[in-house]
């Protein structure tokens, strides 16, 4: 039994309207963040890692110096966007 639901296109578009820092690319929601320096960026990544581990849902991420990109989709749903992704995205927003 899964603990997520695949998000419909209409629901995803509505969510993206409410969460304009996030975008859609290749069946993933993603956010691009910039920080003052590498230490701040890495600290944010560490907080995301703790949060993701608690939710047992892990983003794909990229980090170059002070720039961080996070990508979310659900592997167990065939790499589609699910409620798990949007819940983690909202929790990540609260970390900023």
Spatial order of strands in the largest sheet: 1-2-4-3
Number of strands: 4
Query: How far from one another are the termini?
Result: 33 Å
Output mean pLDDT. 94
Q: What class do helices, strands and sheet pairing give?
A: alpha+beta
Specify Rg, calculated over alpha carbons: 13 Å
Poorly predicted regions = none
Largest sheet: 4 strands, antiparallel
Order of helices and strands: HEEHEEH
Q: What share of the residues does DSSP label as strand, in percent?
A: 15-25%
Provide the helix percentage: 40-55%
Task: Write up what this structure looks like.
This protein is α+β, with helices and mostly antiparallel strands. The chain is built from 3 helices and 4 strands. The chain has a 4-stranded antiparallel beta sheet, covered by helices on one side. A hairpin with a 2-residue loop joins strand 1 (22-25) and strand 2. Helix 2 runs antiparallel to helix 3. The longest helix has 18 residues, at 38-55. The protein starts with 8 loop residues before the first helix and ends with a helix.
Q: Which characteristics define this entry?
A:
alpha+beta; four-stranded antiparallel β-sheet; 23% strand; 4 strands; 96 residues
Sequence-ordered SSE layout with sheet pairings:
Blueprint lengths: L8 H10 L3 E4 L2 E7 L3 H18 L4 E5 L2 E6 L10 H13 L1
Antiparallel strand pairs: 1-2, 2-4, 3-4
Helix pairs in contact: 2-3
Quick structural overview:
The chain has helices spanning 9-18, 38-55, 83-95; strands spanning 22-25, 28-34, 60-64, 67-72.
């Amino acid at each position: 039994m899964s603990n997520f639901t695949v998000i419909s296109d209409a629901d995803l578009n509505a969510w993206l309207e409410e969460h304009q820092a996030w975008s859609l690319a290749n069946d993933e929601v993603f956010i691009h963040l910039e920080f003052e320096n590498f230490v701040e960026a890495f600290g944010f990544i560490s907080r995301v890692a703790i949060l993701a581990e608690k939710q047992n849902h892990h983003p794909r991420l990229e980090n170059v110096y002070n720039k961080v990109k996070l990508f979310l989709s659900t592997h167990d749903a065939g790499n589609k966007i699910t409620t798990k992704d949007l819940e983690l995205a909202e929790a990540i927003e609260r970390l900023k």
